[in-house]
Each structure stands twice: as structure tokens, then as C-alpha cells.
Amino acid sequence: MIEAVGLTKRYGRTVAVDNLSFTVKPGRVTGFLGPNGAGKSTTMRMILGLDRPDAGQVRIDGKTYHQLDRPLRTVGALLDAKWVHPNRSARAHLRWLARSNGLPNRRVGEVLELVGLTSVADRRAGGFSLGMSQRLGIAAALLGDPQILLFDEPVNGLDPEGIHWIRQLMKRLAAEGRTVFVSSHLLSEMAQTAQDLVVVGRGRLIAQCTTAEFVDTASETSVRVRSPQLDRLREVLLRKGYALHVEPGVDGNALVVTGSVTSEQVGEIAAEQDVVLHELSVRRGSLEEAFMRLTGDSVEYRTDGQGPAGPAAAGSEDLMVAGGVNR
Amino acid sequence: MSVLGAERIKLFSTKSPWWSSLATVVFVVGFGMIFLLTTASLVREDGPAVPFRVGVSTTQQGIFFGQMVILVMAALAITTEYRFNTIKTTFQAIPGRTSVMLSKALIIGLLAAVLGEIAAFASWGLGRLLVTDFDLTIRTADQWRQVAGAGLVFAITAIIGLAVGALTRHTAGAVTALLVWAMLGEQLIGAIPRVGDKIQPWLPFNAGGHFLGVGPNQNEGAQTGTDLPYNAWGAVAYFAGVAVVLFLVAVLVVNRRDA
Amino acid sequence: MTLLAVERIKLFSTRSPWWCMLAALAVTCGFTALITGTSGDDYPVSVQTTQFASNFGLMVILVMAALAVTTEYRFGTIRATFQAVPNRTAVLLAKTGVVALLAGVVGEVVAFASWGIGKVMRPSADLALNSAADWRHVAGVGLVFAVGAVLAVAVGTLVRHTAGAVTLLLVWALLVETLLSALPTVGEKIQPWLPFNAASNFMLMGGTPPPGASVVSQPYGPWGALAYFTGVAAAGLVITIVVANRRDA
């Protein structure tokens, strides 16, 4: 359980984290979502006692990080996979970490096995690929068999196999009853792994809710219907006050009903009127568009003006990269 | 104890301490021998008229060299942690930053002390083998201090290097500041007209050198100077005091700032 | 010309050269003020005295020049550089040229600022630049800084490691040369051929030497000393270019 209350951190005149309060519960994967520069890493460093908050505090199972006796046994973290000495072997890196918290040397072999680095354990960590570094970072996080785990953008730069592996690992850790707090700037990524979300923008809390709730409220849904009696259905729906438009397609014209509407409502109205339906489908707007609408004002680094591709391109390029994953 | 163990593993699992250790011993012994051999041949030819004499301390003239390598090694022990961001991992594993700093100081100080003893006695031993026609036996307490004292001076030197490294967090900055101060700054300050002589005893590396009777400002026989405000042990106590103050400031700063 | 501009942009867009230039100026001038301010009648101030602290500036410039290459290796930007300009000889020459030029300018600024400080602190002292030797004592500092920078770029490129290069340069210039020249009998013979010693001989020869600096008879005149120092730096640069062309970036 991680509880942050009124966390604030300033760097000179920039407010990196602004009066941020949230709770991360055990047994679930909690996503820490926000655009780049939203203060996610700063918050994680404050959780780990690396940076000192200017105001507020964060507690881990009721204690501050400095009060933890052997912190690696309580909290494991992967903030940056490149935080290793390039000339030190992976095994030596884990060995000093284990020694610092009185963990048996046997754990080093165990976590190396767990992340699949046993065969390269004695090579210098500086020569590791990003994927291997990431695995080493996860091995370090798991070293003390902690109940609480923090991951900062763990899938960045990984190949599909590595992404899949990390997703499964986080789900498994949460299923074992651990608290898993993982940051990302990709809502699509979080939609795959996280049950809960803490959403931030410009250092401020935007939402704390379940992922399903966030996706529901954030993304616009619409209902598409095709029918041989399209004009009749259109009149009825308009009379009942629904917003809609006609969308031509290869299989004939379709109606798209927008606003707060469910497929159940449209289906029932059609049944009342004895209208035959050839298609009744719910369409969700892109998660990325929704996320950008919510955090739009709080994107730290924004390109100027609106490019030819519209607001999606102008908002944030990393969100665009994510676009392909979920659609 | 686990913090100490972690720091020990950290130090010895990279290459630079091994290189530095080797360089320390090789430079100290190498220079000591060059100096000893040239001095001995001069004294043999020209007799007692020359202003040089050959004794135990003649074998120790390379010590200052080793001290410079120790400064760099100790500074690197912490600046590389900042450079590669492993300091964040360290403070994450051990949130008590004071104990991290104390452990580092102990490990690096101990290594420096061992290297100092090895280098000093190796110089003396090799000197005895190479130069047999002069008396290089260690007899007096002063002679013991001149040789065995190297370990103490190296340990104090290491603490200074570590403290400056922690304060600057920057390899090139720390190394430049330390080396330029120790090799040039103290000499030039000592050469300031009128006040230089009075300041000189209070320049830390000068005091450390006085304890061993070696260093750029220590001519052969200079340790007999009577107008100094301290004796040899006072000099090393002052040197140690400077190191302790610097180290305390470093610990305070490391605790206060973000990792 | 493009290459020179590229190297100039690279050098000035990071912070360390600015820090080094500031440190070179501040430490040298501060120390000159200290020396000239404390000297009394028993310690006359000469043109050379005002340049007594120039070694401080030289050391910082050596570090700056070495960093100009070692940081490229440390951050891997050397690969980007060699990718943009595959002609490594041209890259290294351009880099050396820019760094040396900057070092020369800093040297002149440091030297004339120190001389100016001397004039302000001791208006009664004879600090007029009357002879060619007087001019050499002051303006020569810039030449020594420039040549020293070439040597440091060479060492930095060969070592490719910041701490290693900086330690090697400083320990060599400040300690090894001093210890070697202090060796009984042979020291005097070696001394003129130690590069940094030759450089300081160039600056100090002819004129009243400041206390502590013993100027013994040399096998060369002042310009010969500079030529020797330059020759060593040029040799270092040639070796560096050969090595850099042969090894992987």
C-alpha cells in the first residue's frame, strides 16, 4: 500500500509535482499515467526517498521510505534500466545490492534465473541491450522478494516478446497479492495491464479510478446501425432526441448514433418499431484521443500549431506511436 | 556491516580501483628507486660535500606520487556513482546516506592505507636490495614514521578525495581541483611574499608531507626545521582534521540534496 | 571551414568549457592579485611576477582541451561526429584548431589581465612592456596555452577516458617534470627537454626570475624552447591522428 498526501516538488520555478495525493492498493496493478514531463518519475523518486518533497509526504505501509529497515525487502523498483556501472557484471551488481540489505547470495542466482539472464550474468552490464538491461533492472527489483513494486516505463524500447513478458510478470506479481505501481505515458499499454489508474498531468492529479471507468468516461462511444429501413429508424431516433449522422459505406449507408447512448437502447427502439437490423455495433473512440483530451492542457512539451494530421499529431508524438497498438 | 560489505563488492567489481592500486605501487616504487639510485651515485662520486644524503627517507621520495593516484581513485569511487546514476540505486537500497558515506570512507581509506604500507615498504625493501653500500636500516622512531606513516597519510588523502568527489559529483571537476590544489596551489601559496611562509604549515598536503618528510616542499632534512608550529604528529593530526571537516561537510550536503 | 564551425558549436554548447575558462581567469588573476598585493619593497614586482600564476590557467586549459575529446567518447557523440564527417584527420585537425585558438585567446586574456592587475596593485613598480622580452613574458602565455591545448587534445584522444587523461596530464605537468628536474645531476640535463619545463623556460628566460624559479643555462633560446614544446605537441597530434584513423570509433 502506497499513500501519497499533498506531494509537491519544485525545481526552481517549475512545479514538477503539485499537491499530488493518491493511494495504490495491494493485489492489483495500478497504472501511473500521464504524458512525458507530467512528474511521474519525480513522484517515483520521492516514493523511494531519493528526492525530498517540498511539501507533503508519501508512506509505504504506513512508513516513510527512510523508516524502512531493509528497504529492498519491502519495496523493489526499476526506475531506469541504465542505472548500472557499465564495467560491472550483472552478477556483481546484484551481489552488492543483496549484501546491502542482508539478502542471501542465493537470491542473486534465483532472480537471474527468473529474468533469464543466467547465461550472461558475468558479462559487463555496459554491453547489455536495452531489453537485457531492463531484465537486470527487474531482477534487482525482485531481489528482496518485496510486497511493493515500482516500475517506471518498463516496456519502453522493448521488443514485442519483452513487452509480453513484462505484462505477464506484472499481472502475476499482482495476483500474488503484491502492490504493483507502474508508470506509462501510453493509455493503451495501461489498458492491457492495469486495473486501477492514477492519472496525472503537469504534476497534478487528473483522475484516480479503475481503468474501465477511466476508459468509459474518457472515450466517446457511438453506435453504428445498418438496416433496410434506415430512414424510418432515423426519424424515430431523431424524435427521441438522439444525435446522429448518416455514414456511407461499402455495404450501404449506416447510421451512427453519438452521445450517451448504448447499443441496448438502439436495439430496443428498433424492436419496438419492428425495424430489421443488419448491424448493431458499439464503436469506441481511440483511447489516445480521449487521454489527450483529458490531459491536453497539461502536456509539458508540445509542438507548436496544428500539423496537417490534426490535433492528434500536434499533441504529443509518443501518443501517436501508441495509437497503432490498440486499434 | 551489510552496508560495508556492499561497498566492498561495489569497489572491487570495477576495474579502476585495480588499475589505481597497481599505479600507486608502481609509481611510488619506481620514482623512489630512480631518486635513490641517482642520489646514491652522486654521493658515491662527490662524497659528503653534496647537499644530498642517502638514508631511509631517500627511498620514500615517490610517496607523493602515490598520494595523487589515491586522490583520484577516492574521488572516482563516488563521482562514477553519480555519473552512472548508481548512487540512486545505492540510496534506494540504503536510505541512510550517512552510513553509505561512512562505509565508503572506511573501505576506501582502508584500501589506501594498505596500498600506502605496501608501496612504502616495497620502496624501502627494493632500495635495500639495490643500494647496499648505504645504511638503509630502519632504526629510529622517526625512520619508522617516515616509512610506516605512508599508510596513515594515504588513508587521510583518500578521505579528502572522497569528500571532494561527493561535493562536486563530477569526475573532471573533482580530479582537477584536487590535483591542481595539491601539486600547484599549495606550492604557489607557500611562495606568496611575506605571508606564504606563515600559511605554508597550514596547507593540508604540506602538513601531510611534513609528517613523512617527503613532498615537493620537503627538502631532504627539512623536517628538522624548528620554526614550525607543530611536530610531525601534530602535522598529521592537522592533516586528518582537514579531512574530517571536509568529510563532514560532504556528508551534510549529500544528506540534504536530492540523489 | 564547415568543420571548424561544427567543432566551435560543439565546444560552446556544453557547459564545461565555460567553467574552465572562468576558472582559468579567476584563479590566475586572483592569485596574481594576492602575490602583487602582498609583495613589499623587499620583493620587487616585475613583468614576470605578474605571470607567476599562469600555470594555474594552463592546467585548467589542459583539462578543458582533454575534456573536449574525452566527453565525445564518453557520450558516444564521437560516432555521430565520424558518421557526419568520415574524414577523421579533418575532424581532429578542426577540433584541435578550435580548442587551440580558444586556449590562445584565454591565455592572452589571462596574461594581460594579470599584468593589468599588477599595474593596478603596484602603480610604482616598473611594469612597462619595453623590450621584446617583456612582451614575450606576457603575450607568450597565450602561445603556451595554445600549444598545451594541442598536446592535451592529443592525450585525450589517445586515452579516451576523462579521469585517466586529466590525471596523466596534470601529474605529468606538475609532478613528474618537477621530480625529474630535481634528480641529482641528471635532473639538470633532462630538465630542458621536459615539454612543460621548456614552455615555462620560453616564458621566463631572460629577465629577473621570480624567487624559487631557478633558471639555469639552457641549450636553447626562448624561441627554441617554444619550438621544442610545439614539436612535442605536433608529434603527439600526428600519433593521435594515426591511431584515431586505425581504430574503431
TrEMBL record, chain A:
Residues 2-227 form the ABC transporter domain. Keywords: ATP-binding, Nucleotide-binding, Transport. InterPro entries: AAA+_ATPase, ABC_transporter-like_ATP-bd, ABC_transporter-like_CS, P-loop_NTPase. CDD domains: ABC_BcrA_bacitracin_resist. The keyword ATP-binding applies. GO terms for molecular function: ATP binding; ATP hydrolysis activity. It comes from the Bacteria. The keyword Calcium does not apply. Belongs to the ABC transporter superfamily. This is ABC transporter ATP-binding protein.
UniProtKB/TrEMBL annotation, chain B:
Signal peptide: none annotated. Keywords: Membrane, Transmembrane, Transmembrane helix. The chain crosses the membrane at residues 21-43, 63-84, 105-127, 147-167, 174-192, 235-254. It comes from Longimycelium tulufanense. The keyword Transmembrane applies. This is ABC transporter permease. It comes from the Bacteria.
TrEMBL record, chain C:
Keywords: Membrane, Transmembrane, Transmembrane helix. The chain crosses the membrane at residues 18-40, 52-71, 92-117, 137-159, 166-186, 225-244. It comes from Longimycelium tulufanense. This is ABC transporter permease. It comes from the Bacteria.
